[in-house]
Amino acid sequence: MSAGFPPIANADARILVLGSLPGARSIAEQQYYAHPRNAFWPIMKVLFSIDGEYDARCRQLISNRMAVWDVLHSSVRPGSLDADIRLDVASANDFASFFGKHPDIGLVVFNGKKAEALFRRFVDARPTDASARFMVLPSTSPAYAAMPFSRKLARWRQALSLPPNSMT
Which residues are within 8 A (CB) of 25 and not within 5 positions of it... i.e. 6 or more apart? Predict the structure, then answer.
C-alpha cells in the first residue's frame, strides 16, 4: 500500500497543486516530486525562484501562497506509473476539511490528467470560494515525455502567472 504525505500548505494558500499519489522515489525520500527528472521543482525554480533543500523549497512555496497535495491518501501502486494505481482500493484525502481550513484557494491545478480524473471520481468537496477555478496542466512526471520541458514550463507559467479567479 502506498500512502501520501500531508499537504504543503499555509492557511492563506491561494493555489493548490494536486498530484495523484507519490511515486516510489518520493515515498523513499518522503518528499513531493523527488524523482530527479520530475519537472515540478525546476518549473517552480524558473517561475518563483524556488531553490535549495527540500524544506527550504517547501517554505518558499508557502510564501508564494501555494499548496501542494495529492488527490489520493492511499492505494496500491506498484512502481510510479499513474496507470498502475489500483482504483478499487484507493482512498482520497479529506478535501472538505482542507478547503475549510484554506478558504482562499481560488485555483486548483491538476498536475496531469490522472490527478484530475482521480479528483472527479473520488472527491465531492469544492473550495470555499465559489468562483474557484480548476485547470489541468501537463504532468511534470518524467513518464510524460511527449511534451518537452520548455512547453511544460510555458503552460505552467501561463496558468500560475494569472490571478486565480481569471482562469476559465
Answer: 34, 35, 80
Domain boundaries, the chain: 2-161
Q: Can you tell me the distance from the alpha carbon of 135 to that of 98, in angstroms, rounded to the nearest whole number?
A: 18
Q: Does domain 2-161 have CATH number 3.40.50.150?
A: no
- Residues marked as catalytic: 38
Strands 15-19 and 107-111: parallel
State pLDDT tens for residues 125-161: 999 989 999 999 999 998 888 999 999 999 999 999 8
Decide: 13 and 63 in contact? Cβ < 8 Å.
no
Query: What percentage of residues in the chain have a pLDDT greater than 70?
Result: 96
What digits encode the pLDDT tens for the residues 31-80? 999 999 999 999 999 999 999 999 999 999 999 999 999 999 999 988 77
